[in-house]
C-alpha cells in the first residue's frame, strides 16, 4: 500500500533544507563534531569510514534567542489544531493501511482485470431523500474498443432513473460515436418562479418526467481540439406532486395566470447541437493540470405547440497545479436561450441543477432563459493508492458565484448569488465516483451526496445517461 504525501514537493523541500544546512555549516552557524576511523581515503569533509564501521555525529545548535520566543508563540498556538488534525488523519490512515482496509477499498474501486462488472453508488439530499443506484458495464462488448453501461437508481422519495449508453470507438478513444437514452422522474421537483428576483417564499412542488434518446459524434481535428455534433429527441411532462399533503403543490401557490408556461403540458421535439471542444486533461476524475473549453449552439424543433429556440453556451474549466499536489480547479460558464420565455416550456429553461448547481442553494431554486456562474475549488489530496491522479480521495473548499437572467440588462452584482462550502471527492478505477459536500448561502445549508462531478461533466454525456433537458 502506498500513501502519497506530497511526492516531488517534499523532495524539493528536502533538497532545499540540505542546501541551507550546508551553507550554515560553512558559515559557522552550526558545528559538526564527528568521530571517524581510518577508512578508505580522504574527502573534503574528512576521512571516509570503512564499510561497516560505526559513525556518530553530534549536531550542536545555538538555539533561539530570547526575543524570538514571543514571535514564535502565536505560530505554535495557531498550528496546534492543524497538528492535532494531521496526527489524527495520519493515525487513522496508518491503522486502515495496516489492517488491510485500504487495500480492500482499492480492490473494490480500482481497476480490475475483467472488462465487465458492476458499480454501486449512493445519493442523499433534500429532494431525493436517501437512495442508491446499481450499474453494469462492459468495456469490450462486441469488440475490443466498444463500451456499454446501464444503470438504475431509486430513492426514498421515489426519484427514479434508468439509463443506458453505448460507445463505438472509431480508431481512437477521441474519435467515437455515442448512443444513449434514459428516463427520469422527480415526484417533488421545485418551482420558485422565474427570474433572478424569484422569492424563496414562492417554493412549490410538481412531478417532472423526462425521456430522451439520441446520438453524439465526437471527432478530433487538431490534437486536443474536437468537433461534437449530436441529435437528441426528448419528451418532458409535468403534473402535481406525488404527495401533495407533504409537498405544497404548484397549483396551490400560483394562480392559473401566474403558472409557468407549459405546466401540465407535454413538450417533445429534437435538439440538434454542434460544438467545438478543447480538452487537454489527462485523466477523468482527478486531473491536476490542463483544462476543458467548450463553445456550442443547439436548436430545438418541437413536434407539439411549443416554440422553437436556439441555445448558446460557452464554458471554460482549468486545473492549476499548486504545491504538494494541491490543485486549484476553476470553472466559468454562460448560457443563453434565444426565445421568448413565455412561449418555452418552463422545464427547458436554464436552472441550477447538475452540473450548473449553486451549491449553497436548493436545486431548481433559480430558473430563466440565461445563466452565468463562476466556481473555484481548492483540492487537497487526502489519500491516493498509487499515484495522485489515480484512485484516491480529495478534500476541497469551494466558492460559487452566479445568477440567472431573462434579459442581459439583469446581469448585475445585486443579482449575483454567493455560496461556499467544503466536501470530499472520490475517484475510482473508472474515473470519478462521487462527492459528499455541504454548501452554505444566505438562504440555506444544503448537504449533497452525488455520483456526478461538476467539472468534466459533459464528457461522454449520453453514454453516462445524463439528462439533456434543459440543453447545456
Summarize the structure.
With 472 residues, the chain is mostly beta strands.
- Count of domain modules: 1
The CATH C-level class name: Mainly Beta
User: What percentage of the residues does DSSP assign to strands (E)?
Assistant: over 45%
Q: What is the distance, rounded to the nearest whole angstrom, between the alpha carbons of the first and last residues?
A: 41 Å
Q: Give me the Rg, rounded.
A: 28 Å
Q: What is the residue-averaged pLDDT?
A: 82
Q: What's the number of helices? A: 4
Shape-level CATH architecture: Beta Barrel
Helix content: 10-25%
Helix and strand pattern: HEEEEHHEEEEEEEHEEEEEEEEEEE
Question: What are its keywords?
Answer:
single chain, globular, 16-stranded antiparallel sheet, mainly beta, 472 residues, disordered N terminus, Porin
Blueprint (SSEs and pairs):
Layout: H1 7-27, E1 31-35, E2 41-43, E3 46-48, E4 56-60, H2 68-98, H3 101-109, E5 116-125, E6 129-138, E7 146-155, E8 160-172, E9 175-191, E10 204-222, E11 225-239, H4 250-253, E12 267-279, E13 291-302, E14 309-321, E15 327-338, E16 350-351, E17 367-368, E18 370-384, E19 392-405, E20 417-428, E21 431-440, E22 445-450
Antiparallel strand pairs: 1-4, 2-3, 5-6, 6-7, 7-8, 8-9, 9-10, 10-11, 11-12, 12-13, 13-14, 14-15, 15-18, 16-17, 18-19, 19-20, 20-21, 21-22
What does this molecule look like?
This protein is mainly beta. It has a single domain, classed as Beta Barrel (Porin). The protein contains four helices and 22 strands. The protein has a 16-stranded antiparallel sheet. It has a two-stranded antiparallel ribbon with strand order 1-4. Strands 2-3 form a two-stranded antiparallel sheet.
Amino acid at each position: 500500500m502506498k500513501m502519497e504525501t506530497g511526492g516531488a514537493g517534499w523532495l524539493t523541500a528536502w533538497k532545499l533544507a540540505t542546501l541551507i544546512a550546508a551553507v550554515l555549516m560553512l558559515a559557522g552557524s552550526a558545528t559538526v563534531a564527528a568521530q571517524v576511523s581510518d577508512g578508505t581515503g580522504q574527502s573534503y569533509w574528512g576521512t571516509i569510514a570503512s564499510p561497516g564501521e560505526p559513525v556518530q555525529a553530534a549536531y550542536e545548535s545555538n538555539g533561539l534567542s530570547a526575543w524570538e520566543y514571543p514571535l514564535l508563540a502565536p505560530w505554535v498556538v495557531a498550528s496546534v489544531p492543524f497538528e492535532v488534525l494531521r496526527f489524527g488523519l495520519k493515525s487513522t490512515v496508518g491503522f486502515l493501511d495496516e489492517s488491510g482496509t485500504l487495500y480492500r477499498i482499492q480492490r473494490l474501486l480500482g481497476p480490475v482485470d475483467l472488462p465487465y462488472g458492476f458499480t454501486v453508488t449512493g445519493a442523499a439530499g433534500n429532494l431525493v431523500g436517501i437512495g442508491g443506484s446499481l450499474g453494469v458495464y462492459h468495456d469490450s462488448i462486441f469488440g475490443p474498443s466498444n463500451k456499454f453501461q446501464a444503470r438504475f437508481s431509486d430513492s426514498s422519495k421515489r426519484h427514479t432513473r434508468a439509463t443506458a449508453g453505448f460507445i463505438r470507438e472509431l480508431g481512437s478513444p477521441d474519435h467515437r460515436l455515442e448512443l444513449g437514452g434514459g428516463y427520469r422522474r422527480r415526484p417533488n421537483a421545485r418551482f420558485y418562479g422565474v427570474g433572478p428576483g424569484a422569492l424563496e417564499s414562492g417554493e412549490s412542488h410538481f412531478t417532472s418526467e423526462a425521456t430522451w434518446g439520441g446520438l453524439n459524434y465526437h471527432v478530433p481535428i487538431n490534437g486536443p481540439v474536437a468537433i461534437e455534433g449530436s441529435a437528441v429527441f426528448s419528451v418532458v411532462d409535468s403534473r402535481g406532486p406525488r404527495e401533495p399533503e407533504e409537498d405544497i403543490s404548484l397549483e396551490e401557490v400560483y394562480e392559473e395566470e401566474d403558472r409557468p408556461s407549459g405546466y401540465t403540458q407535454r413538450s417533445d421535439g429534437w435538439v440538434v447541437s454542434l460544438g467545438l471542444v478543447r480538452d487537454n486533461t489527462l485523466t477523468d476524475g482527478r486531473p491536476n493540470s490542463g483544462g476543458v473549453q467548450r463553445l456550442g449552439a443547439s436548436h430545438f424543433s418541437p413536434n407539439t405547440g411549443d416554440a422553437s429556440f436556439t441555445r448558446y453556451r460557452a464554458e471554460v474549466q482549468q486545473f492549476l497545479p499548486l504545491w504538494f499536489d494541491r490543485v486549484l480547479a476553476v470553472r466559468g460558464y454562460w448560457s443563453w436561450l434565444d426565445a421568448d420565455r413565455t412561449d418555452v416550456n418552463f422545464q427547458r429553461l436554464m436552472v441550477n441543477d447538475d452540473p450548473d448547481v449553486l451549491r449553497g442553494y436548493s436545486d431548481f431554486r433559480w430558473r430563466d432563459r440565461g445563466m452565468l456562474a463562476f466556481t473555484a475549488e481548492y483540492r487537497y489530496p487526502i489519500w491516493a493508492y498509487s499515484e495522485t491522479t489515480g484512485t484516491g480521495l480529495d478534500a476541497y473548499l469551494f466558492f460559487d458565484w452566479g445568477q440567472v437572467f431573462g434579459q442581459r440588462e439583469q446581469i448585475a452584482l445585486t443579482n449575483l448569488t454567493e455560496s461556499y462550502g467544503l466536501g470530499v471527492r472520490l475517484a475510482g478505477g473508472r474515473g470519478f465516483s462521487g462527492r459528499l459536500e455541504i454548501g452554505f448561502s444566505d438562504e440555506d445549508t444544503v448537504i449533497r451526496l452525488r455520483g456526478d462531478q461538476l467539472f468534466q461533466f459533459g464528457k461522454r454525456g449520453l453514454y453516462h445517461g445524463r439528462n439533456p433537458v434543459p440543453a447545456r
